[in-house]
Amino acid sequence: MPAPLTEERDRLDRAALLDAAERLFYERGIQAVGMDEVRAASALSLKRIYRFFPGKEDLVVAMLRRRDQRWRDSLATFVERISDPRERVLAVFDWLAEWFAEPGFRGCAWINAHGELGSASAAVLAEVRSHKQAFHDQLAEWVRATGVAVVEPVFLLVEGAVVTAGISGDPSPARHARTAAAALLGTP
Amino acid sequence: MPAPLTEERDRLDRAALLDAAERLFYERGIQAVGMDEVRAASALSLKRIYRFFPGKEDLVVAMLRRRDQRWRDSLATFVERISDPRERVLAVFDWLAEWFAEPGFRGCAWINAHGELGSASAAVLAEVRSHKQAFHDQLAEWVRATGVAVVEPVFLLVEGAVVTAGISGDPSPARHARTAAAALLGTP
DNA sequence: ATCGATGGAGAACGCACGTTCTCAACACTT
DNA sequence: AAGTGTTGAGAACGTGCGTTCTCCATCGAT
């Protein structure tokens, strides 16, 4: 019964493939990275890659979906250690500050994918919208718990900070957005 | 002395070329549009196009630069009709609301270009940063005139609104950002 | 009217991409 | 141990890109 062995290998290869794709696509853009480069970075054969995903678009969507899980889990884990609702919302911006300062930070993978493929690939567009909606809803819960009706402004501050830090390469938008969010939430 | 005639024709052709490039690149993305399509839309010969710009990258940069002029002029003309400093800043968001509602609105051309070419083309990256800096400085003047130190938050609200409206296709971020900006500026 | 240069149209080129195919090596069955 | 199906590695294929080249029409000068 060797089936479990190949299943385990599939799992690992699939993860290696998505790791390689995510890193390359985020670093250099999706269209700028060829499937052959993904093959080299993942140490898989092209045939095996196309067995996992029938086309590049499917790989991109799967990569975005898995990144969405990781990204939102990481954020939630970080902010939900803080129990005070107001401080919890402000912690979102602390998490952003850490993210912006990471080497290789290049802005939001979904916004970048949207700029690149939003008009060419309906599947990618749907994935981008799905991520933004999911993040919005997650954030909305945290903001609503403060009792102050500022969900939309706080969301827009986050998006503005991510975009601005991504383009300028400067992490200070996280600080500015945090200060503004604190003002909108009012003095405690 | 026929020189003025060819100079005038150059001016017109160059404008037609940049018009066509701007429309196509904004609608469908830069990498998704080939030079042959730009040729067809501009009704120029490929040879003539390459006489104006030695490569596609130069055309993209020139297109972004001209769009920057038009975009910021349009915004400035709109908001500078309003003399009250506070209302002038809020008018920025009214201008955004009109822009977002335009048919074919697809977010910020510079953010999209950054997502597509920011890591591949230093010239495009520089042009994107230059535009964002220029807009930031323009906005900073208007905000400073209110006497309230909220330049950065207002800037981030604008960026967040543009990105969110571009992805979702919904113009309401302009309203939400306006409300938040009014709150940050304080009650008059 | 003829010559020569200029410029237009688009065919042609080289390259790189996404995808598919070939074929040899291997593992598992009888 | 021989056969058979499956897999891996990468060559091959078709397409479409950015760019250059070829040819021919046009037009001003002599």
Descriptive tags:
homodimer; 188 residues; mainly alpha; Arc Repressor Mutant, subunit A; Tetracycline Repressor, domain 2; 0% strand; DNA-binding; Transcriptional regulator, TetR family (chains A, B); DNA-binding (chains A, B); transcription regulation (chains A, B); Tet_transcr_reg_TetR-rel_C_sf (chains A, B)
Model description:
Chains A, B: It comes from Actinopolyspora xinjiangensis. The structure is a homodimer of 188-residue chains. The first copy, chain A, is mostly helical and 188 residues long. Chain A has 2 domains: 1-52, Arc Repressor Mutant, subunit A (Orthogonal Bundle); 64-185, Tetracycline Repressor, domain 2, CATH 1.10.357.10. The first copy, chain A, has helices spanning 3-28, 35-42, 46-52, 56-79, 85-101, 109-117, 122-144, 151-168, 172-185. The A-B interface holds A 27-29, 31-32, 106-107, 110-120, 128-129, 132, 150, 152-153, 155-161, 163-164, 166-168, 173, 176-177, 179-180, 183-184 and B 27-29, 31-32, 106-107, 110-120, 128-129, 132, 150, 152-153, 155-161, 163-164, 166-168, 173, 176-177, 179-180, 183-184. Chain B binds a DNA duplex (30 and 30 nucleotides) through residues 2, 31, 34-36, 39, 44-48, 50-51, 55-56.
Concise description?
Chain A has helices spanning 3-28, 35-42, 46-52, 56-79, 85-101, 109-117, 122-144, 151-168, 172-185. Chain A is mainly α and 188 residues long.
